[in-house]
Amino acid sequence: MEPKDKHHDKSACTASMNAIKDALYVLNGKWKLPLILSLQEKPLRFNEIQKSLGEITPKILSKELKELELNEFVIRKVFHTTPVTVTYELTEYSGTLDSVINELREWGMQHRERLVKNRRKDVSLEETNASPGISA
């Protein structure tokens, strides 16, 4: 893959790489962005988040929520009811990820479409090659 601009100096490349590493460090793993997406409509309780994400374990969800809270994407609110109610909601700062999420969504849809299309081609080629007595 050709770089778009071949005239980057070493310090610009290093700064760019460090910025990407920082972003990946904060958003690492398969649950952070889906977790943020699950909270976009409204604040949710722990069990509601777990149900919306499906296969996540309570231990991992707890860890991910704590990390998102430390990085100022999520606020944990405790209501002194009986029993105590705890909700999680997105901060205003989490909105800075909107363009990142939208770009990832678009790319993911294109990528899935490409793979499905190429699988169909591969299956068609395998069927053609496996059919005895049929010449092209």
From TrEMBL:
Reading the lineage from the top rank, the first entry is Bacteria
This protein's name? HxlR family transcriptional regulator
| Residue intervals of the HTH hxlR-type domain | 13-116
- Membrane-crossing ranges are none
**What UniProt keywords are attached to this protein's entry?**
DNA-binding, Transcription, Transcription regulation
* SUPFAM superfamilies according to UniProt: Winged helix' DNA-binding domain (SSF46785)
Source organism (scientific name): Pedobacter kyungheensis
Question: What Pfam families does the record point to?
Answer: HxlR
Q: Name one GO molecular function term.
A: DNA binding
